[in-house]
Amino acid sequence: VCSLSKRSAIGYPLLLGHIHACKADVGIKIFGDEDDEFFYDMVFSLSFLRRLATQMDELQFFALEGQRSHVQKIDNDWVVVHPLQPNSYILRSSIYSCLRLCPPDKVCMLHIEG
C-alpha cells in the first residue's frame, strides 16, 4: 500500500471492493477537489508484487549523490566523519515506473471528490 495521506488505504473497503470487482492488480484512489491538492493511495495485489520482485531490472531507478556521515577507526577510537564531498548514492524510483509492468486492463481507479 502506498499512501500519501495520513488516512489508511487498507481501512478503505470501497477501494478494496472496487479492486476485487475489477479483478485488477493495481488499484488507485485519487481524492481532493479543484481548490485542494490531490492525493492518491495505491494498492498492489500480491501476485503483482511477486512479479515486481522478479522483474526489478525492469524498474527505472536513478542515482542521486549524497553526503552520509560514517564512523572510522582512528588511533583505536571510533570517530564520526562528516564528509565535505558526496560519498554515496541514493537509488530512487518513481511509483509510476511500476505501472509500466502492469497491463492497463489490470489497473482500476477510484476518484473521490471532496
Automatic annotation (TrEMBL):
Q: Could you give a GO molecular-function term held by this entry?
A: UDP-N-acetylglucosamine diphosphorylase activity
| The organism's place on the tree of life at top rank | Eukaryota
Instruction: Report the InterPro entries cross-referenced here.
Output: Nucleotide-diphossugar_trans (IPR029044), UDP-sugar_pyrophosphorylase (IPR039741)
Query: Which biological processes are named by the entry's GO terms?
Result: UDP-N-acetylglucosamine biosynthetic process
Q: Which PANTHER family match?
A: 16S RRNA PROCESSING PROTEIN RIMM FAMILY, UDP- GLUCOSE PYROPHOSPHORYLASE
Name of the protein described by the UniProt record: Uncharacterized protein
What is the originating organism of this protein? Nymphaea colorata
